[in-house]
Amino acid sequence: MDYSFPRYLLAKQSVDDRALNKDVFNALTANLPRGPIRIIEVGAGIGTMVKRLVNWDVIRHAEYVLVDEMAENVEYASAWIPEWAGKAGLSVERSAENQLRVFDSSRNVRIQSERADVFDFIQKNKTPADLLIAHAFLDLLPMPESLTKLLALTNDLAWLTLNFDGMTTFEPVIDAALDETIERLYHGTMDARPSGGSSKSGRGLFTHLRNAGAEILSAGASDWVAHGANGKYPQDEAYFLHFILRFFEESLKGCGELNKDVLADWLRKRHEQIERGELTYVAHQLDFLAKINRYQVPQSRRYRKS
Q1: Is the Cα torsion angle 155, 61, 98, 13 positive or negative in sign?
Q2: Rounded CA gap, 46 and 200, in Å?
Q3: 102-153, pLDDT tens digit by residue?
Q4: Which residues, in sequence order, are bridge partners of residue 109?
Q5: Residue 298's pLDDT is what?
Q6: Domain ranges across the chain
Q7: How far from 15 is each of 9, 184, 232, 239, CA to CA, in Å?
Q8: Whole-model pTM above 0.90?
Q9: pLDDT tens-digit profile of 273-302?
Q10: Which CATH superfamily is domain 5-167+195-225+282-294 in?
């Protein structure tokens, strides 16, 4: 199988749509400032969140900055965003290589893609956003030190979604002990990343946000649940599942606690379950909407305009 990360991001859109916590989402829409807003999304991938927010009529007049380190994602977004906008009946103007405007009679959204390490972007950003979005991203970063830096990107709200929180389940069971071992070892690789991150990042955000001077307006579960019906998966979710197994394969290869042939056999059986539409996958995650109170953030951490 050809594994493409942009296609994985496309394939998980429907899974993410179901997963996003609806109470947290409703709190977001209730608290967004009226009128034109500035949004910064870190770890933005190919732009699926801006598509979602436009299609769901959450944003109408906005400046939207997508920040991602992967050149492949930024390049893909440059071609894909005009494609979905056109299909949605929106007009598209390109003012520069990574600057787009999607609009119609009632909507006007300017989209700027930035290929940058998120912490480099934080250093150079001069205009904080009304809303910071980090979608399926914070569990890749060292906490709590990353959070205080990220919150400098917003003067108001932070919507922090799909933060992994320590549970992965595959059904049907192949071998209960082996399944448990593989899941435990996979979670261990999250905790051992040189770049940081945690397999229990979701629950930690309750404390980290408060310590950073943020008020949690809403929080709730946002579990990924992917399952077949009548031997098939919705849309491209079979590809999403194959790619999840790819993450397991890449993370666990060379693991001294797991025989490589045993892992290969387990992966083969799981891929075959997907092909038959039998595999169910659940990953526990948490969403947060936080309000930034600059009066509570230590002075050294506050954003200052130059």
Answers
A1: positive
A2: 26
A3: 999 999 999 999 999 999 999 999 999 999 999 999 999 999 999 999 999 9
A4: 62, 102
A5: 44
A6: 5-167+195-225+282-294
A7: 10, 23, 15, 12
A8: yes
A9: 999 999 999 999 999 999 998 655 443 344
A10: Vaccinia Virus protein VP39 (3.40.50.150)
